[in-house]
Write a structure and sequence with these properties.
The protein is mainly α. It is 67% helix and 10% strand. The protein has helices at 3-14, 19-29, 38-50, 74-85, 97-108, 113-138, 144-169, 171-179; strands spanning 16-18, 54-61, 66-72. The chain has a three-stranded antiparallel β-sheet with strand order 1-3-2. A hairpin with a 4-residue loop joins strand 2 and strand 3. Helix 6 runs antiparallel to helix 7. The longest helix has 26 residues, at 113-138.
């Protein structure tokens, strides 16, 4: 996910916004996504200014430091539209810590018990998170955005669980291959 593109989208929707408003909208709209850190926000805004995607629209002082409001430029709109029109490329490489831990456990320990133990603990953690997300879905008070985020996460957790089951079945073969 590109933080800059998310911020461009918020500015496209809202017109003019201060940094704090952009952060609040990012966190409010993207439920389930890690909240945006202020350091990342202001670094990203500086880069967007440098690249000509946004301009300062107003300065305001309200009992503290100056607050700068930003506005989307035509170049920013073009960048946003280009990003929105491109499909997210499917992953080429495995980047999940789950996979890496299993391989390292098989490589660095004398038997497959450590990998099996890790997979069992990870399975339990996944199932607990799935129960939490299922409660969000069945509790009746969730917004459509919260439901969409829960569905997304549940499907990814389910895929991980299926991978773990297959890997446990192959653990002996995998260990032999990794250690050769």
């Amino acid at each position: 996910m590109s933080t800059a593109h998310v911020l461009l989208g918020v500015l496209a929707a809202q017109g003019v916004s201060h940094g704090y408003e952009l952060k609040r909208e990012h966190d409010r709209r993207l439920l389930g996504v890690r909240p945006l850190a202020f350091g990342q926000l202001y670094t990203t805004l500086a880069r967007m200014l440098r690249d000509g995607y946004i301009v300062e629209a107003a300065h305001q002082r309200v009992g503290g430091p100056d607050r700068v409001a930003y506005r989307l430029t035509p170049e920013g709109r073009t960048a946003l539209d280009g990003w929105l029109s491109r499909a997210v490329p499917p992953a080429v490489h495995v980047s999940g810590e789950l996979f890496v831990k299993v391989i390292v456990a098989l490589l660095a320990t004398p038997d497959e018990a450590t990998a099996r133990s890790y997979l069992a603990a990870q399975r339990a953690a996944h199932l607990a998170r799935m129960r939490e997300l299922t409660a969000v879905k069945t509790g009746g008070g969730a917004s459509v955005t919260e439901l969409a985020a829960a569905d997304y996460l549940l499907n990814h957790l389910d895929a991980d669980l299926r991978w773990m089951a297959i890997t446990v079945d192959r653990i002996g073969q995998l260990r032999a291959e990794v250690r050769s």
